[in-house]
Amino acid sequence: MGEVHRRLLSTLVGRSDIAEGDHIYSWRTLLVYAHHGIYIGNGLVIHFTPPPEKVTASNPFSSLSSSSSASGQDQQRTCPNHPRCGSRKAGSRVAIICLDCFLEEGLLWRYEYGVTSSKRLDGTCTTEQSDPASTVVRRANYLFENGFGNYDLVTNNCEHFALYCKTGVGRSGQVDAYISACGIL
Questions:
Q1: Rounded to whole angstroms, how far apart are CA atoms 65 and 112?
Q2: Residues near 98 by beta carbon (within 8 Å), at least 6 away in sequence
Q3: Is 47 among the catalytic positions?
Q4: pLDDT, tens digit, for every residue of 145-162?
Q5: Catalytic annotation, pick one of 85, 98, 125, 158
Q6: 35 in catalytic set
Q7: In sequence order, what DSSP letters do the residues of 35-83 get, joined into one string?
């Protein structure tokens, strides 16, 4: 069994500590943002990615264009880890990816649900309760088959996708924390 560590409001976990239906994420670009997905078992994650044209070298989210995300509009990538890695439906930004490619050599974190409202919500946890794992995985697979709409960094991103899979609603705590910290709202 892997070691589980708590840091701030989140849980750093080992691969053996995650279960089907877990909302997982990994920090990207010097901890500027986290990429979120739903672990569906067998070493696979379903996640939501921006289209390649939204990813540029000047964009702090540009690492999303690497192997785990936008390797080409609707092209399937090849991965030695798993034959389903990189699978997506034509025109959809929802993809199945192996855990190794999802992590991009980063650490594995589990998003927390049902935290007390006294904790600061900074995009690593929510007071919302998660639905049962079977419902979460069913939602993620449904969205893989049918899409999750157009990607938008602020209103429809990978965190929204994972929150929706877990609860049936979606609002990004990471974006809310950034907006609050910058005094935008």
A1: 27
A2: 43, 44, 45, 79, 81, 82, 84, 85
A3: yes
A4: 999 999 988 889 999 999
A5: 158
A6: yes
A7: EEEEEEETTEEEEE---GGG--TTSTTGGGGSTTS-SSTTPPPP-SS-T
The token pair at 107 is: 């650490």
Contact 117, 9 (CB under 8 A): no
Question: What's this model's pTM, rounded to 2 decimal places?
Answer: 0.77
pLDDT at 6 over 50: no
Adjacent-strand bridge partners of 12: 5, 109
User: What is the C-alpha separation between 163 and 169, in angstroms, rounded?
Assistant: 6
Reported in sequence order, the residue ranges of the chain that DSSP labels E, i.e. its strands, are 5-7, 10-12, 23-28, 33-41, 44-48, 87-88, 94-98, 109-110
Mean pLDDT for the stretch of residues 18-27: 96
Catalytic residue among 35, 101, 125, 160: 35
CA distance 18 to 7: 17
Active-site residue identified among 23, 47, 98, 165: 47
Phi, then psi, of 110 in degrees rounded to 5: -110, 130
Neighbours of 24 (CB within 10 A): 23
Contacts of 121 (CB under 8 A, 6+ apart): 9, 115, 127, 173, 176, 177
